[in-house]
Amino acid sequence: MADPTPTRAGTRTSGMAARSGVMFDTAVASTPASAREMLAGGVAGVLAKTAVASLGRVKLLRRTGGEPGGVGAVRTLVGIYRREGVAGLYRGNGANALRVFPSKALHFAAYERYRGWLLAATAAPSSSAVDLLAGSAAGGTALLATYPLDLARARLASGDGACTSVHGVLRAAYAEGGGVRGLYRGACPALARALPRAGIKFGAYEWLKRRLPEGYDGRADAQLACGVAAAQLASTATYPLGVVRRRMQLGLATGGVLQGIRAIAREEGVRRLYAGLGIAYVKAVPAAAIGLVAYDQMKLL
């Protein structure tokens, strides 16, 4: 019969593991809630971006002519895998992660802060209205904090102008717009989409979670289904605003948001306002859903 008495090595190992666990719990408990929320949000954003990184690579190659025209997304993925292996599907994802982490950290942490303030101010239990308002405010905060970088990425991706670096694009935009205003060109339509999109996404997600059948509450797969539905609703409802935003960023549209929507619908047809929506369903919707669920799971940790 085996001796049940633990060895010295086993005792020492279990003791070290216990002390490590206590130290970890102590460190987490002593960390401000806002810092924990930012960490959870940043990690969730990176996980979401990584989950769809291969689709982002396909989109980039098709935009830049790296793949011949008419080749489907699946064939492009297979071609990348054959030429470069699994690593090729995630090439450039490290740089994306560095960009996404601070943006999503701010986004989710701001949502928690606004939600807490609204609940305290209204002295009411959580509701869809609170989630919608907090989500909208958080989306606007994150967008304004990172908008100049988004402007630079849009111009670089389009190949517009002689600038080939983020710094160069920002300098040119600053000069063209007569100062800081140039760095926020197109910010109004961006806010017009970001506010309702983030609000609908968070509001619908929390509303759906509260209506999950008994036994499904807290399950990641059920939360993912709620996230997909919420993200799809938010994307569909606000997609035309995104089309106008990109055109204004590139200097292809002037005037207000509603004027831009009417002009596109009149000159190019209503369908043009939803051009590329299918790609958003394939890439943006899963990323948003994964981000929401990953944030919930990170909060449990």
Automatic annotation (TrEMBL):
Solcar repeats: 32-117, 126-211, 218-301
Organism superkingdom: Eukaryota
Any one GO molecular-function label of the UniProt entry: coenzyme A transmembrane transporter activity
Record membrane topology: Multi-pass membrane protein
Predominant localisation class: membrane
Localization per Swiss-Prot or TrEMBL: Membrane
GO biological process, one term: mitochondrial coenzyme A transmembrane transport
One family name in Pfam for this protein: Mito_carr
GO cellular-component term (any): mitochondrial inner membrane
Protein name, per record: Mitochondrial carrier protein
